[in-house]
Amino acid sequence: MVFNFFSFNALGQSDLSSVQIDKLILEALSDLRESNFEKSLIHSRVALDHSTKTKNDYFIARSYNIIAANYNELGELDKAIFFYKKSLLYAYKAKNDSFKNMLYNNLGNIYCFEKKEYSRGVEFYKKSIELSLKIKDSTQIYFTYVNIAWSYFDVGQFKNGYPYLQFINANQKKFQFDDTIVITNMLNGMYCSHQGDIQKADDYFNNAIRLGRNYIEKTDLSNAHLEYSKFLSANGRYKEAYVNLDAYNKITEQIYNDEKIKSASIAGFNLELDEYKRQIDKIEIEKDSQYQSLKKSRIIVVLFVMTSFVLLLLIITLVKNIRFKKKHNLELLEAKEIAEEASLLKTQFISTISHELRTPLYGVVGITNMLLEEHKELSNSQHLSSLKFSARYLLSLVNDILQINKIEENKVVLESLTFNISDEIAMIKNSLSFLSQKNNNKISTIIDDAIPEYLIGDKLRLAQILMNLVSNALKFTKEGEVEIIINLVKVEGKMHFLEFRIKDNGVGIAAIDQTKIFEKFVQVGRKDEDYQGTGLGLSIVKRLLGLFNTTIDLKSKIGEGTLFTFTIPFEYDPEKTKRIIDEIQVDLTSNEVFKILVVEDNAINQLVTKKIIEKNNYICKVVDDGFGALQILDNEYFDLILMDINMPLMNGFETTKRIRQLGIKTPIVALTAFDKDEITDEAISSGMNDIIIKPFEPVKLFKIINYLVSETKSVGC
């Protein structure tokens, strides 16, 4: 694809700061063309800061464009789209049609060639062509036609793409750009191959490769090698096809050097933090502006009262008031948009942090378990126990933060599951037995006999509420008792209202602190040497109960203990319960030895996952990236593939798409540190069968493996 990075002149501005900013932008552009992503991001970030301070919309648009281009090259497509659209916003403010035209073309490239959303990509291309015709920019029309032809050829729609190729060939001498000459030859090769003109296609491909070797920018050369290898393979010239595919891989590895990507990720992360801070500053400025507007409003009201008896002045004041309200509504809408943008940045920030923490935690927990299992003499090691506890504590913190964020963004929906209340309480009691023994506490339960055996509701959220309350009570009680009391308080139709009482005789909560404890990150009555916690447990409890449309009551005295009380309605319907039970999938166990492929770039996580799989007597092979997966699948059969998502060169989604394009039906499970809700849609669309979040319980992994392999084999029969 042909991306536009035209620098344009500095619009005639001669002051020193403008010249310096323009120089920084040009340096960032030069670094990008040389695939030096770290330097390019650093230079563009500095340019963006200075452009923002000088309120130069055109320089801001240029800076955002280069930032977006860096993220596109690094495979961070959503971030690239986000910053391209930011650039487009400021290009509109600067009223620069040429720059808007270029950005529409770049957005079209991402949607067509990267996200494979051709309809959206063509919409952006059409906007680019409209602007090109408006400003009579025939050069940009030529660039856009190249991209449209390529996008059609990429999906095999040669008939639709050929008119654009005709235009390109007819105007090639007029627009003889280094940026397109390699691609133009490649496109002609692809079309001639489709038409069956083998010799002509071969000449075009060789010409594209010969020309591509003369240019510093090697992306087009790599694409020419890739398309040529497909052509050679289709014509039975397998040895030559392999040579060209190998050349494509080597050039790609050279462009996306691991160290460059690692350094650029750090620079990009700093850039995101700067962007987040900039949005917060905007909100603060907006709040100050609204305060000044409010002061003006008070003055108008005073004048209105003083002149209310004069009809003429009353009419004038009313007109002014109407105009002010319109202006104020516009300000509120703008403030709302800024707040929503800040909320999006917060969500992205939390997602990034949680993923970066979960990945090493998977390694820490996995290796600790391996040491304890393989070296029984270390089972009493305080160091290993402390390491395992610290890793699980940090994982709990990450999960709590994500849970709070989901609830605040209304992403949590209650489910209807059938359950036995006695079984659920027994499970909670067993799960917390270690914590109760630590402080020499006793957990007792009293469950009303009038409660039906099976109820319907969200048992997972209920368990989460009770786990938080009971574990909190155990932490603040020593050599005492924690009671779980459940009573049926009323019945309305099929709804049975259960009252839950969590009572302890621990340290208690002071009256002054009782209004604070449900707030986030608040911890009261805590001594560092006695208690552990994130300060999020009770906040999560309050928000989850809000989903049930109920509240929680607190009674406590210092030294006498604490009582939490809440009521939740659950449905009792024997027929519906039977239907739900019948629909539950039975876990299919198997004594077969399955062959598993693990696609993972992190060496520590490779070791941990391989050990877990081989411990279950399965055969396991590991590859470092998506290209390795495609290569080994060409020669070997596997029962199931465990696919990491965040890999260099080619991520897990793209790898899965290419595997499916080859006609391989092997079940693919995403093994990732991303939150499940974030990637579910993209995972399904790419062809994945399921998702497991790291760190995970091995039992859950093997249940999924058994089910998917058995299901695939039964369908195959």
From TrEMBL:
* SMART domains (alphabetical): HATPase_c, HisKA, REC, TPR
The organism's lineage is: Bacteria, Pseudomonadati, Bacteroidota, Flavobacteriia, Flavobacteriales
Q: Where are the transmembrane segments?
A: 299-319
Any Pfam family the entry gives? Response_reg
Indicate the segments annotated as coiled coil, or none if absent.
266-293
Kindly report, in one word, the top-level EC class recorded for this enzyme. transferase
What is the designated name of this protein? histidine kinase
Q: Which reaction does it catalyse?
A: ATP + protein L-histidine = ADP + protein N-phospho-L-histidine
Q: Which residues carry this modification: 4-aspartylphosphate?
A: 644
Question: EC number(s)?
Answer: 2.7.13.3
| Highest taxon of source | Bacteria
Name its species: Flavobacterium cupriresistens
What UniProt keywords are attached to this protein's entry?
Answer: Coiled coil, Membrane, Phosphoprotein, Transmembrane, Transmembrane helix
Where the record annotates domain Response regulatory, the positions are: 595-709
Q: Which residues form the Histidine kinase domain?
A: 352-572
Q: Does the keyword Transmembrane helix apply?
A: yes
